[in-house]
Amino acid sequence: MELIGVIGGGTMGAGIAEVCAKAGSSVLVLETTEAYADAARGRIAKSISRGVARGKISQEDADAAIGRVRVTLDMDEFADRDLVIEAAPEVEALKHDIFERLDAIVKPSGILATNTSSIPVIKVAGATKHPERVVGVHFFNPVPVMPLVEIISTLVTSPEAAVAVTDYVKNTLGKTPVQAGDRSGFIVNALLIPYLCQAVRMLDSGYASAEDIDAAMKGGCGYPMGPLTLLDTVGLDIALAAAESLYAEFAEPHYAPPPLLRRMVDAGRLGRKTGRGFYAYS
């Protein structure tokens, strides 16, 4: 696992590329336009520079890490990658297309991974002719800070692929891997999404204010942030997609997205990234 590919240079993709590069891997990031490629380069460099300012990494090591990252618009360049991690938007059709293309490009020994937070991995693995080399590798945001990675094996994932990815995550990246079954939401989101949806329902019913809901969960349960602040941080569109996937999988009422969550996404109030969610951000 020396040559790593990352599909998408957004928040998650850039974070994954950063941690892999800082761990010594050669990282190739795929973007769709030069503007997005420039943004991905800037995102990675800025994050690594913050680590220098905070004394978490030396300037020499930071420069070396940045030098190990290259951004391209050509997926054909991924042919030699040992591991390719897809970090595209949570759109099943898009991921299906990406994996179909990667399967035809990446060398037979290369492992294909998806960073999906809620879509069953077998749904994207089914786009390939070799689903046994497809595994779920779910990082958490912000990737450089969060220690956990969920490793998801499908019914047909080869044990060798799962072991190789787990070893890379644990021994190269220094993260904490947990093994999860291939069900929508895996471990974390299967438990988290109902909690977040219930907080939105409570706010919508007028039972309590956003500020009081968040303060109650921070002070009463010891959480670092309340559920509505967490939704703003994650992105309401991401949470909605996860809830929809969970509800489609299980058809249980506590997974159903609240109407208010849908309306806020429709209105473009996605949280911190748009400047407005349950709270306003400058």
Give the SSE map.
Elements (H helix, E strand, L loop, with lengths): L2 E5 L3 H12 L3 E5 L3 H20 L5 H9 L1 E4 L10 E4 L5 H14 L5 E4 L6 H5 L8 E6 L8 E6 L5 H14 L3 E6 L6 H17 L5 H12 L5 H8 L1 H15 L8 H8 L16
Parallel strand pairs: 1-2, 1-4, 2-3, 4-5, 5-6, 7-8
Antiparallel strand pairs: 6-7
Helix pairs in contact: 1-2, 2-3, 7-9, 7-10
Describe this structure in words.
This protein has 282 residues and is of the alpha/beta class. The protein has two domains: 3-181, Rossmann fold; 190-274, Orthogonal Bundle (N-(1-d-carboxylethyl)-l-norvaline Dehydrogenase, domain 2), CATH 1.10.1040.10. The protein is 48% helix and 14% strand. It contains eleven helices and eight strands. The protein has helices at 11-22, 34-53, 59-67, 92-105, 121-125, 159-172, 188-204, 210-221, 227-234, 236-250, 259-266; strands at 3-7, 26-30, 69-72, 83-86, 111-114, 134-139, 148-153, 176-181. Helix 7 (188-204) packs across helix 10 (236-250). The longest helix is centred in the N-terminal third of the chain and has 20 residues, at 34-53. The chain is globular and about 55 Å long. It starts with a strand and ends in a 16-residue tail after the last helix. 44% of the residues are buried. The model has no long low-confidence stretch (mean pLDDT 96).
